[in-house]
């Protein structure tokens, strides 16, 4: 598969498009006035601890306080308890509760869901990184908003218990798993940690804490944090709070996995490095000298972060930015390119030079493939990226056969409905449905990546009778999702043709990023018909007539479509109402009103 990377930079925003065989598969957008937070490291201040939710709100200098769950905190060693024999006998049969905790280093969206599928913070130039300083007074102001954020916390925790169950063994991989519904339900259970790990015994209000952002602010929810810091380079991810050495599962050669693990262990001993390391996919067949360079770089980076933390601890500020992620174009070079990337095209001269300099130092193999764009037409127009972006905001996605998908996003989940449409080419109804569903799996996988749909996703395939067809459709879906670098899980096809799946989400979807709820319908997606509004007006007039005896005339102020209906098909009803009430009813058009808005003026 040939792949190209297009980088478009303007004074307002940076955009990156990934093309597979000339077809747009992913788009990343970063507004210069609204930079993403994922990968940033802050010295924050705890503003509230919630024992009942085993979570805390942390001030990091953003519009909303971020939240930290106990499962996203570094595990503490179990305290040593000396008991007498009587006490030991009394507790002999008791078992400690299981702790479901992991090191969430699969930051697949430091770029947006990072292409290599591994954890990715940043290799930013520390000398130039800025600090976010928040005056102590703002801490009190933001406490008033905590009540609103608390109600969002429980649903977010459920999402993350289902979606963020990464472990070091699975780090950096988009793993497509097929589960039966009971297994998926079992994973939703949240088990309380042992007493010594309860959040109320680990954090208190006003405490300074070093945290890293793992999820951007989504809608009304604040950013998600972890205390398990992860620092990536081109080939490795350094985990200061872990002792694990892991290998990306995308490296499937056992000899190569063994080589990497052995060499990383030896290098850690050589440089006396504490913590853990993950070999990213890009580390496959990389000589040990390159790995050693990465380790020295990461060690120096971590020492710099620690030094900045110590220097900021006594500053009196409630939030200080210690480490900032790279810009989107540089992140794309670090995380998206691989040996199969044929070329990188940049349409901005200054960014072109910056990207080449960065690639020369960190990703030298791509350096000669970085090209400037000199065409007269906009880069994204030439490659039809703009057209695909417009289509990605539509509910309907047409299939080549004549079938189509309907995609709807809600707060709780995304639903995708498959329909045959005009396709009637099968030998039988079952064959037509089967072919439509197979074609739909390709479109669904592409739309998930292009629109960056995450969380819980329900796929409503057309009902099939034969089990073999159901298995084929599920297998095709698995295969298509294997190309997705975001972590996904899917269930079996139900009797109703439904497939439940999850896709890891750390940033807003394309729709959330580019659009806002309709001010006319307030995000419902529909409005009352003009006829319904007319009947509401009639009822309101009758209500006013009973309440107020003095009015001699009613003036109805409404949208033109409603007034037109009142003066045409509902004219007889208006006349009857005037006769019944003994009052005159007049009408006035207000073009600034929506179809649902109206006023009744008493004269």
From TrEMBL:
Localization: Cytoplasm
InterPro entries for the chain: NA-bd_OB-fold, RNA-bd_AU-1/RNase_E/G, RNase_E/G, RNase_E_G_thioredoxin-like, S1_domain
Record flagged with keyword S-adenosyl-L-methionine: no
Cofactor: Mg(2+)
GO molecular function: endonuclease activity; hydrolase activity; metal ion binding; RNA nuclease activity; rRNA binding; tRNA binding
Keywords: Cytoplasm, Endonuclease, Hydrolase, Magnesium, Metal-binding, Nuclease, RNA-binding, rRNA processing, rRNA-binding, tRNA processing, tRNA-binding
Compositional bias segments (type: Low complexity): 117-131
Chain ranges of the S1 motif domain: 37-228
Principal cellular location given in the protein's record: cytoplasm
Bias kind Basic and acidic residues: ranges: 106-116, 132-146
A cellular component term, taken from the record's GO annotations: cytoplasm
One family name in Pfam for this protein: RNase_E_G_Thio
Superkingdom assignment: Bacteria
Annotated stretches, region: Disordered: 79-148
GO BP of this protein: rRNA processing; tRNA processing
Protein family: Belongs to the RNase E/G family. RNase G subfamily.
PANTHER family: RIBONUCLEASE, RIBONUCLEASE G
The protein's name in its UniProt record: Ribonuclease G
Organism: Psychrobacter pasteurii
